[in-house]
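input
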Amino acid sequence: MQEHARSNPAGTSEAIIADALGRGPDMQLGSKQDGWQLCRWRQFVGSYTVPALPEPLYTMHIAGQQHNRTWLNGGWSEHVSIPGCATIVPAGQQTGWLVDGELDVVTLSVSSEQLFRAPAQDQFRQMRFAFSDPLGAALTRQVLSELYAPQSTEREVYIGALVNALKAHILRGANSMTSQDIPTASFSSYRIHHVMNAILQNPEAEHSLEEMSSVAGLTPSHFCRVFRKATGLSPHQYVMKTRLDKAQQMLHQSDMSIAMIAESLGFTSQSHFTRAFRHFSGEAPSDFRKRNRN
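output
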């Protein structure tokens, strides 16, 4: 395994991304033997067009801005990426990105030879934007924590094993299980995925801690610890961020009154919604709507 921060060879996915962003990765490591390249990218703001990449790319959103979008069907996506979400970019497809603030993501590219032998190779043939992947997030965070530990032979071996585990996870089909496949007797990271998807699909629902921990098959305190480790957020923060992401979309794209938006997203009152929105975005809902429409 090699760890460095130098430029990538011309023509690689990493070199194309670095050219589009105007900066290289903060950290990079790779293994020719195991056929992967992992990079950490941080602190880039704006809108970008990334040319088609030679290899499919798995991206894990680790931290930073909560409202990142991709260009779909002639406009910026309504769906947004938040920490804990993964994206798969297929080879040969130009993509567009809108980053409204500092961002922290990790990318993993795997050689085509290995992808062609993967059980879930079809998932790399089309764009999959911002799907929840708790196991991928947990493995990625563990890799990053080890990268800042004191250097040693054991550390190098462990990091390589972690990245190979992440590679195996995505090759077998990240986020491929359905709710019917989830075991009911013992804890599985896919239960956390099930909870996250339920929140993303219905942010206005109550999503009480007791209900979510029951779905995960854990005590509330243990569920909070596991959820934060997977997403970087507490369950309450995740629910609130998801609601406010949806609120920004509604303020920008609809003519609903602020009171109606607050009610539709499960806030107890318009004032509660306004306080939460101001804390989240730094401005009142009315100011956000006016600024975006101008």
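quick obs: Residues 205 and 266 are 6 Å apart (CA to CA).
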